[in-house]
Amino acid sequence: MMKNRNIPSDLLYTSNHEWVRIVGDEATIGITSxxxxxxxxxxxxxxxxxxxxxxxxxxxxTVETAKTVLEVxxxxxxxxxQVNLNLVNRPLLIGQDPYGEGWIAKLKIENVSxxxxxxxxxxxxxxxxxxxxxxxxxxxxx
Length: 142
Hints:
Oligomer: single chain
Structural class: alpha+beta
Mean pLDDT: 88
Low-confidence stretches: 136-142
Number of helices: 4
């Protein structure tokens, strides 16, 4: 049984537990609340540089927790437009408000066809519910 059912229906998701909010040709990226249930003790964030071009599934950020360092992967190819600098001084925001103030980066989408490969909320919910619990975060990359 899934611990946290906070899966907003207006977002898209990846199997690595990133979320994506698409407005026009811009994608905002963050880490799902489901993943955050297993990321206790976030200590710091390393963010991508604005202006950097990234490919889908490329590591774009890292999250240091009390137990490990986790990678966040870009769900889409694009140009990093903006990063959430608030996370540098307040990394706990990523868990306190994952779908709001805890966003990580904004990209200009360069390959719209990749959007079709993302999960909608229903598919992501089924994916998470089928995962064995507890999720071993030290063995997963984000």
